[in-house]
Amino acid sequence: MPYPLIGITTARRPHTEVRSQIVVTEAYVQAIAVNGGCPVMIPLGLSSQLLDDLLERLDGILFTGGGDIDPAFYGAAPHPSVGDVDPDRDGVELHLLEKAVGRGVPFLGICRGLQLINVGLGGSLYTDIAAQHLKAMRHDYYPDFPRDYLAHPVYVHAGSRLAGILENSHVEVNSLHHQGIDQLATGLLSTASAPDGIVEAVELPGHPFGLAVQWHPEWLGAFAPMRALFLAFVNAAEGFSKQ
Fold first, then answer.
1. Catalytic one among 93, 203, 218, 238?
2. How far apart are CA 211 and CA 189, in angstroms?
3. Active site annotation includes 133
4. Could you tell me the pTM of the whole model?
5. Which of 4, 52, 118, 223 could form a disulfide with 237 if both were Cys (CB 3.0 to 4.6 A apart)?
6. What's the pLDDT tens digit per position in 178-236?
7. By the 8 A CB rule, do 211 and 137 touch?
8. Domains of the chain listed by start with CATH number
9. Rounded to 5, what percent of the chain is helix, strand, coil?
10. Which of 93, 111, 177, 203 is catalytic?
11. What is the pLDDT of residues 29-53, one digit of tens each?
């Protein structure tokens, strides 16, 4: 039986003054592969037609973490902490999200991926949580912490798809972000939150599998609930491939 093809979004990294590299963190690749999916990197720099042709062959999309989304997409003013903005990546991922929502392609968002999904569906972000949410706890446990450092608990909403997958009402998570959801997009459901109220997970009701988390489960494979999240996503992609 063929493995479901899971597209993984990528980032652009400068290499020299005249060329750059398109990269993806290996932890995402392994998280998909060990749970029964076939990872396929989605390069940047493609036309909308090429992206659509690629999407026709994919059974799921993993929207990965990375640099910040251009605040112009959600009507916010620039902030000094905003960095690593790549207009091409923003455009590619927003296009893929629109098509995945419309076609019912399973998708999972991680960190930036959650923020991208919220912005793409009409929501907004704190451009910097520490500056704009005065009662917020610390969320930017990087770069001087291990990627699997458990920074704080997340409370999972009962009855949500995420609660059924994790089989827990709360989990300890890592936290590698300085931005977060401000206004939740209409149509999205918040399904988990940090102790300070920051949204930590969202779901798209009525979609075969439209889910995103603010933490980085790809670094937490030692914990069964995080493995279960990737397995549920790959299983949804396998179901889509059989339609």
1. 218
2. 10
3. no
4. 0.96
5. 4
6. 999 999 999 999 999 999 999 999 999 999 999 999 999 999 999 999 999 999 999 99
7. no
8. 5-241 (3.40.50.880)
9. 35, 25, 45
10. 111
11. 999 999 999 999 999 999 999 999 9
